[in-house]
């Protein structure tokens, strides 16, 4: 009798009973047989109605039970009915909604995990130079430290502060790019001027390493993009090549264009890229097995994010002749959103 717990069913059953009795009383004026016939027909119709209604409510009850299980951490609804009817449409819509909610919950959990890992990586990247600074400051303040040692410690502290500043700036730029809050200019960028701008901060470090930068770029080669952000991206790649090129090595830059894209090639004479590092080379905070202690694993990720937003791409490979080769492509015809 669980069906009668529903107020609308009780009201309908009461009205149907009164109507049946009224019709049977009218038939009784004709004959007792007519009244009995009316009662039998009404009882049969009532039984059929009760059976169909009970079946619909059982399906609703089963759907409610599944939803309750989903709310308490159970599996999503297992089947989407393919039969017709409003109840089937409702059950199908609920199934799709729960599946969609599960997908969103999984995506949120993945974002939460990624954020947790990112915070842990950032914490680790900042902890190392800050710990070193914490050890340097007492020695700088000590009266027993000589002038020469004090100068050396001050230079080391300045280098650590510069590293922290670069790391924070790179993280802020990367977060702005990933959130889509950076507005890229759309203007002609001359590749030869771009390479000169990107390489300028590396002139002294490369000179100290006795490295040579060869740029063979035609002045007429251009692409449409943002000069400042593109110089940032190319500079990070040049810096990566410099760090992995041995003393006395070379870095070569060339460019070409075709009807589809402008391509910039940056090659070094270093040890190349290990096969296990290639799939993860542009991941944030990833450090390959040949990375130095000063590597933060952000520069290449930042470069890729910049060119992706400009309808471009960056790939890395190790040619047969040795070294690493970075291939930058900026395709023609991009919008502010970075898509055609």
UniProtKB/TrEMBL annotation:
Keyword tRNA processing: no
Recorded GO MF terms: phosphoprotein phosphatase activity; phosphorelay sensor kinase activity
Domain Histidine kinase: 121-330
Record's catalysed reaction(s): ATP + protein L-histidine = ADP + protein N-phospho-L-histidine
Pfam families reported for this sequence: HATPase_c (PF02518), HisKA (PF00512)
Compartments reported by the entry: Membrane
Chief localization: membrane
Alphabetically ordered keywords of this record: Kinase, Membrane, Phosphoprotein, Transferase, Transmembrane, Transmembrane helix, Two-component regulatory system
Enzyme Commission designation: 2.7.13.3
Record field: transmembrane: 12-30, 36-53
Domain of life from the UniProt record: Bacteria
Protein's name in the database: histidine kinase
């Amino acid at each position: 009798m669980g069906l009668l717990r529903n107020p609308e069913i009780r009201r309908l059953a009461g009205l149907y009973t009164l109507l049946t009795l009224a019709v049977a009383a009218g038939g009784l004026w004709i004959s007792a047989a007519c009244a009995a016939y009316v009662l039998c027909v009404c009882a049969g119709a009532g039984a059929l109605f009760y059976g169909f209604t009970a079946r619909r409510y059982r399906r609703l009850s089963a759907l409610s039970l599944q939803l309750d299980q989903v709310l308490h951490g159970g599996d999503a609804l297992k089947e989407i009915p393919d039969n017709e009817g409003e109840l089937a449409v409702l059950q199908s819509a609920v199934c799709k909604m729960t599946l969609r909610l599960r997908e969103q919950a999984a995506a949120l959990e993945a974002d939460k995990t990624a954020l947790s890992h990112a915070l842990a990586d950032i914490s680790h990247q900042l902890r190392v130079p800050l710990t070193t600074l914490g050890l340097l400051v007492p020695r700088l303040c000590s009266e027993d430290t000589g002038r020469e040692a004090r100068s050396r410690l001050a230079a080391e502290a300045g280098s650590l502060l510069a590293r922290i500043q670069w790391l924070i700036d790179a993280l802020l730029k990367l977060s702005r790019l990933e959130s889509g809050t950076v507005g890229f200019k759309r203007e002609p960028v001359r590749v030869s001027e771009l390479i000169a701008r990107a390489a300028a901060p590396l002139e002294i470090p490369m000179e100290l390493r006795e490295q040579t930068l060869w740029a063979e770029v035609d002045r007429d080669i251009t692409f449409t993009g943002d000069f400042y952000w593109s110089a940032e991206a190319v500079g990070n790649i040049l810096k990566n090549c410099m760090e992995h090129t041995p003393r006395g090595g070379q870095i070569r830059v060339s460019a070409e264009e075709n009807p589809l894209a402008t391509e910039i090639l940056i090659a070094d004479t270093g040890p190349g890229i290990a096969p296990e590092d290639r799939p993860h080379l542009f991941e944030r905070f990833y450090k390959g097995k040949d990375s130095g202690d000063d590597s933060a694993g952000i520069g290449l990720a930042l470069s890729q994010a910049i060119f992706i937003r400009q309808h471009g791409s960056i790939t890395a490979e190790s040619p047969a002749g040795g070294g690493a080769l970075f291939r930058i492509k900026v395709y023609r015809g991009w919008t502010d959103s970075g898509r055609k």
